[in-house]
Write a structure and sequence with these properties.
This protein has 3 helices and 2 strands, in the order αββαα. It is mostly helical and about 80 residues long. Strands 1-2 form a two-stranded antiparallel sheet.
Length: about 80
């Protein structure tokens, strides 16, 4: 369900790598790899899809961390081009 929401909305609803908790042993491919392909822009989403394909997730809707937005970050400068990957 989380993977479908993320893919259909083109939105990382799961969180940043520093926010998500998972067992390192469950991530059998390098971070950013999904089905053998290394992603550079959406590498966190690639890893979340990889992990979700192996089991269930617990989603806590309460805000536990914040994402700092600044004018020079990739998602501001790349815009929709980031999603072509």
């Amino acid at each position: 369900m989380l993977a479908n929401i993320a893919l259909t909305r083109c939105l990382n609803v799961i969180g940043e790598p520093t926010t998500v908790l998972f067992k390192k042993t469950d991530l059998t491919e390098r971070f950013g790899v999904y089905k053998g392909k290394q992603y550079s822009l959406l590498n966190d989403l690639a890893s979340w899809l990889n992990l979700l394909s192996k089991g269930k997730a617990v989603y806590i809707p309460e805000t536990l961390s914040y994402f700092r937005i600044h004018p020079n970050q990739n998602n501001r400068t790349l815009g929709q081009n980031a999603f072509t990957e």
